[in-house]
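hey so i finally got around to running the thing on that chain from the lab meeting. sorry it took forever, my laptop kept dying and i had to restart like 3 times. anyway pasting the input first so we r on the same page abt which one it is
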Amino acid sequence: MKLVFPAAPQTPVIGQGLWRRAPSATRGSPGRRLHAEFAAERDWEQFHQPRNLLLALVGEVGELAELFQWKPDAELSPQAWPPKERAALQEELSDVLIYLVALAARCRVDLPRAVLAKMDTNRRRYPAHLSRGSARKYTDLPHGATSNDQAAGTADPACESTN
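ok and heres what got predicted. didnt touch it at all, straight out
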């Protein structure tokens, strides 16, 4: 199962058409295959242990954050950024996604399935009638979630540490 992203919607809302189920596995996704081939051609798999992938991901998130840092509130909308800044945003978002997908693959986490399961958990934790317009954590809502809301099927904490 993989996630399919339709053309950029005006208001992305998970569960209302942003992601829909598609019949193939994440391992077969073009992005994952391209990254695996890229790393294999350079003999970089040896460096792609979970810790290294995570640290690379954090570094890329930092580079993404730099694009937003120190901008006045009026300039926060990336749609209004100049083309050079929009291109940088596209590159950094791509880097974050590449490392996230690589980390999930190395840890043998079916990321699309995990996202769908997490969204189901979030729907239970944050019922619309209790959380609409509120930034409160689910435990602070009038009828906070119970321990049954823990996500099922957690991944192996050790991940895959060898090729």
